[in-house]
């Protein structure tokens, strides 16, 4: 009997846990600082165990990892190196869905000496995006071709019929992660030239992108795309861009929310303040200011603008109580958004992942390839976000359990012996890309 230890019982853990509870030869232990969340995933299943675990409890953490065959770390990314360090000390492989941090990279040599795999970036983005990108790139190279351009967008959004609030967004994963993503600088290549977008200008740098048969979205750049020339092994690429999809209106709204100071992380004591007073002080205005009109004047827009309607809908101009007496502006904004931007029972979320490649071949021909994944949540069941993050991670864990992963060290799924089996597993579960090719 194999033992899988899952650390973290958040938004995306459910499909992964059930993947292994369906296997008669696997036991699944789910740990969370909130044991009720873990228990909701395992229920009364005879091969499931749920319990409370604080990662600061080093003795308990070491004991649980020692008893596992594979550890899945779904805790906040800052804790992955801690978990990985314990895994290395106990010679246990680990799987995460998060980006490889510098602290994680630093463990590569030690992991190789220990003969242990530390598999990262096997969720959706990062994860499935890498896998499909490498599948197509390897196919192009197999024909002797060169990849001259790569553009990719990914978005986790309400399905069209569930797009019912002015923000065009509902939370299917960490609200903090969604908001913090708007504070990153972006870099990409266009026609061989590096383009740098400072964090303050991120939401000014969107374009409208139409996905045929679905909708037109706002797409803005995501972090450092240039590094993916090396990741994907395409030094010849002149265009390298990775971005995020949102429904229209998101970018101008988040731009102004950032300008307002509501994404700041400095903690303060707000005891005794109404919501209006807190928000006025964040904007550098008097406590009783008419926020809508003051902000309209500051931003030189019509007080009746839809941008301000969105903020009013969220409650940013209200006199009501704050959702906490202390914390940072982003802490309180997160709580306000989470209170109003939830999926209703029966509503579906949607994943849209779109890759576009420009390829050139030795015979002088060139080709445009577009590969698109559109996936919907199951009404009353799993969200698409939880499926497209949890299932590829589960498939990666399964590779380890079945001794089919021969690599060691810190890795991502850019190798055919990793991405091939995972994409096949996803296809068997209905998560499938549609590919279009056009000679150019």
Strand content bin:
15-25%
Low-confidence stretches: none
Strand count: 18
**What overall form do the CA principal axes indicate?**
globular
CATH architecture of the largest domain: 2-Layer Sandwich
The average pLDDT score comes to: 94
With strands numbered from the N-terminus, the spatial order across the biggest sheet is: 3-2-1-4-5-6-17
Q: Please state the CA-atom Rg, rounded to the nearest Å.
A: 23 Å
Largest sheet: 7 strands, parallel
Structural class: alpha/beta
**CATH H-level superfamily title of the largest domain:** Dihydrodipicolinate Reductase, domain 2
Number of domains: 3
- Summarize the amount of helix as a percent range: 25-40%
CATH topology of the largest domain: Dihydrodipicolinate Reductase, domain 2
Count of discrete alpha- or pi-helical segments spanning 4 or more residues: 16
Could you name the CATH class of the largest domain?
Alpha Beta
Distance N to C terminus: 54 Å
SSE topology sketch:
Layout: E1 2-7, H1 13-21, E2 26-32, H2 35-42, E3 48-52, H3 58-66, E4 70-73, H4 80-90, E5 94-96, H5 102-105, H6 108-114, E6 117-119, H7 128-142, E7 146-158, H8 175-180, E8 186-190, E9 193-197, E10 207-211, E11 215-221, H9 228-231, E12 239-246, H10 250-260, E13 268-269, H11 275-282, H12 291-299, H13 306-314, E14 326-327, H14 329-340, E15 349-360, E16 366-376, H15 384-401, E17 409-411, H16 416-428, E18 433-439
Parallel strand pairs: 1-2, 1-4, 2-3, 4-5, 5-6, 6-17, 7-12
Antiparallel strand pairs: 7-15, 8-9, 10-11, 11-12, 13-14, 15-16, 16-18
